[in-house]
């Protein structure tokens, strides 16, 4: 009787009731007492099972995976009774649950990796845009002379209103580079575009003389002068930036930064929706350095300017040339060109 009371107290201790219940079942079988060797083997197996259960509990409390246990190590014989069979079923169910949880965790980890990769690309693209013109939005309201009808954007600018018909005999300024043909876009086509009406104030000066250049640009090295002109553009002071960039190109036309200056000069027109002057400037920049670092940007913005002028055919030719001549262009240029081709309904 004392033995049964002791066993009952031991069974109240959680998982410990399993081996005791099996021992009680064995003690109730007379033939099991006669076979002491078989009983010892069964007790050893129960001890191993108890250790495995303890290890499983520790693993589960730490959130780890349970080591796989061979089915033969936990499956009992007919003499072990139904308790071990129930335990084996429970362990198998826990193992399946752990496998399902592990699969879900791996799937979530993969999705998080994809999201991080896309986020890194998005952050890089946004950083580039902010470093060029998007940062200028914060300074745009404080500029009194900049007649911007819409917010400047890098890739998508609102469609311009209908452009007035060009005069057949009107001619504009020529370019420093010799005449040439970019696909089906001839220089004469661009020269025939009516230049915008002159506005009052210091905007759009003609060829700046030496005195004007000195007044527009500060003294310093070409890099310092370029930084000053680009800073005006970053502040959305487009009229002043236009004058400074023109002066820089005239004073330092052979400097490596001249290609950048030509591109940003065209952008001062583009963000103000002066697409005719923008197209001329981007074409001049491309012809001045057709293999330079800014050549893909020049072609992209040239095509965008032509599309805003409703010259869809010429714009599509420009986008095609960009794709053919610069297959290794940065992804931002490829994506922008694809978007503009679709907008212009290019085939």
From TrEMBL:
Q: Where are the transmembrane segments?
A: none
A GO biological process held by the record? cell division
Q: Which UniProt keywords apply?
A: Coiled coil
Q: Which InterPro entries match?
A: CpoB, CpoB_C, TPR-like_helical_dom_sf, TPR_rpt
Coiled-coil residues are 32-59, 84-111
Report what the protein is called: Uncharacterized protein
What organism is listed for this UniProt entry?
Answer: uncultured organism
